[in-house]
Amino acid sequence: MPVSPMERLYDIAFREEHHTAELGQSIAPGVTLAQAKERADIDISDDAFDFVRSIRVYHIQFSQHQNRDGDCIRSDATRLGSYGLQGEYAWARSSVAAVPEASNLAVPAYCGSYSWRSVFVDWRDHAGNYGSEEVRY
User: What pTM does this model have?
Assistant: First the structure.
């Protein structure tokens, strides 16, 4: 049975043996230690790499409550991270209104006490299939 991306990340982080190596050294067959740069090392502007540009990372920080005067006090510090034409990554201001429905975020219609913090990632793979993961903290 195929392993989910989250299970694979867990395996890499906690179960697989880690080796110390210098940049450029091989740490496993087919794996070479490298340092990330601000953009891709190859030209990824072709449509074949649209799956990279489809990755969106929402850092959601939202809360609301009603004060004694009945005013609804909302705080929305949601940010959206995305990849550009050549793999450059950037953050931009966003809002909970822009978060996809696949997220577990559920802002009440009325102004009750509500708080939500999470990282939500969604993407489309090379075949156009939608996927997402969310981690609440």
Answer: 0.67
